[in-house]
Amino acid sequence: MTDNYLSSPRGFKSWLTTVDHKRIGVMYLASILFAFLLGGIFAILIRIELLKPGHNIMSADTYNRVFTLHGAIMIFLFIIPSIPAALGNFVLPLMLGAKDVAFPRLNLASYYIYVAGALLAISAMVAGGVDTGWTFYTPYSTTTNGSVGLMTFAAFVLGFSSIFTGINFIATVHKLRAPGMGWFRMPLFVWGMYATAIIQVLATPVLGITLLLIIMERVFSVGIFNPQLGGDPILFQHFFWFYSHPAVYIMILPGMAIISEVIPCFSRKTIFGYKAIAYSSIAIAGVSFLVWGHHMFVSGQSSLANVIFSFLTFLVAIPSGVKVFNWIATMYKGSISLEAPMLYAISFLLLFAIGGLTGLFLGALATDVHLHDTYFVVAHFHFVMMGGTVMAFLAGLHFWWPKMFGRMYSEKWARVSAALIFIGFNVTFLSQFVLGSRGMPRRYYNYLDQFQPLHVFSTVGSWVLALGFLIMAGYLWASLRKPMDAPANPWGAVGLEWQTSSPPPEHNFETVPTVTGPPYDYSPVEPEPAEVHA
Amino acid sequence: MSAAATSQGEFLQHHFTTPEQQADAGKIGMWLFLVTEILLFGGLFVGFAIMQSLHPRAFLEAHHHLDRMLGFINTVVLLTSSYTMVMAVHSARTDRRKRVIVYLLLTLICAGIFLGIKCVEYSHKFHEGLLPGRFYSHKGDTVPGQFMFFSFYFMMTGLHGIHILGGMAIIAWVLRRAARGDFSHSYYTPVDLVGLYWHLVDLIWIYLFPLLYLIQ
Fold first, then answer.
1. Per the confidence metrics, is the pTM higher than 0.90?
2. Chain B residue with minimal CA distance to A165?
3. Which of A174, A209, A224 lies closest to B40 in CB terms?
């Protein structure tokens, strides 16, 4: 057995002090999966509470804290770092043919800042909890009890971790491409990460100062968001969404980036419209900064601003549509095989299409007045974030798992779990579109009897979903327990990360690779069979 | 092998091929960081502009409590420190190692003077009860709502002051490295990057001074 990054250098301390992007990626992966478990448990608790109207398993105040924690954990501790910091950290330098990211120590710092932020967030939960929702709207967030200050500070700290990853990726893409890899020879995953990094760098600081202002408001009553003191609570919403709308693209662009890798590989075809997909990532990043007002159609924003923001919101549909059509065109007449990564990629296409189209209902002024703050928004958001980003994350996780750990997982169980997750997801959230359009408000502890059948439907769906994830945890864990059997290139994929061994050696490549042609050239490559262990 | 070539090799990290590549990457990283700093302060500037437009009289009245002379002196002090910083970078690039140390020391001293004057200003405000938010206790105001101005005054100058302190720490760090003889014309990126940061901190003050002290 040759040395690889997992085995050399040895020892626990060598992991804690590592500056290897692969190890940092793996540490991030373990951490975000833990956060996902925690957020998932809260989600299941929410659904159980909503099985029937009134009190079931928790009080109304506890319920408010639980949905806040579900949101805050899933957003700040799971989705935002999920693809860039865990998978991206691992594969981006490999894809570029680089030995590491541009600033390895900054990369490690980003991980420890993430851990510090996570610990702060967890201590905020223990010390009083937070009941504001993950959006921390003023004036409630500046007047309620509990540890809002600690939680906002945690999110502030986590912002730095995200910024450092963004800075690192931009510098890496600019300066560390292998010889011969021009901008239009980069894999589309890298383009997606680059667009994401731009948003991370430009938007996150504004969230940082906004969260600091909440803390200032709570400690000093500075007045900026408090109408009693002459401030403006709507200003908080402007500040918050100036970050948090671009932030949903921090979450979805990396997902799209993964899909652009997986679909050509399992269709055995060159990607259709490479440049269109590359530019549409940048276009989404650009437009993302101009649409924040669509969260505030009913908040008292001027009608003129509403019309402008509504129009700009529709613009986002164009680059998103460009991507979806290009992926489908890639699959057209391809030689499609349905391994686990491809199953998740196809799930992404179906669910993201629904999530994207229902976004247009919410971007349209007249329908939004009816649908605002209902379960329709909850369902839309989960279709984009879970149906979109999480499905893509799972596609990427299954795609690169053999590369990361050198082991194949059980394809049979992976398909079972993909099917359960797809079915469970739709049962859970399609019903919420109906609930919302019939007037069920979001974040409510109690509801009218007429909504109960759909709530039960949704809760049962969440159990199917949970079962799918438990099976996944099982077969992934089982794969780690067996000897390494993954070949360098199990899927017959092109891209530099498949040209080195699985798992890669400490410095990624034995010799620096040279790029001589465009990406996604799927004519000559065939999958290698897995090694058979007696 | 010349001395210059040795110092190149010594500080070249394993994942870079050439010193130029490493220096360029460092500069990209620092510029991106500066962009995040501008956006961080940008939020406060926007908040200030909106609150000022909501309460123009209170802001106008409140700013009379600031000492323009001290603000002006501090502006000159920081501009001077930017000059000494430029000279430190220039000296590093031209292998004048003694001068690097002198100029970095001068920059540190300017930063210290700035903070000293700021302390004088702060203690004056504390004494008069010109404090942010609920702690505002100044007597005899004719226009209500002046606490809001001081909320912003302390948040903006405070955040800026923290950046000055951070700047002093990293200047001290490059000073130590300069004293050790790390820098030469072929390797002076850390001095360069610290310089970029210091200019930004200076630039933010150039905007803060008229915004807070010279309201018309």
1. yes
2. B29
3. A209
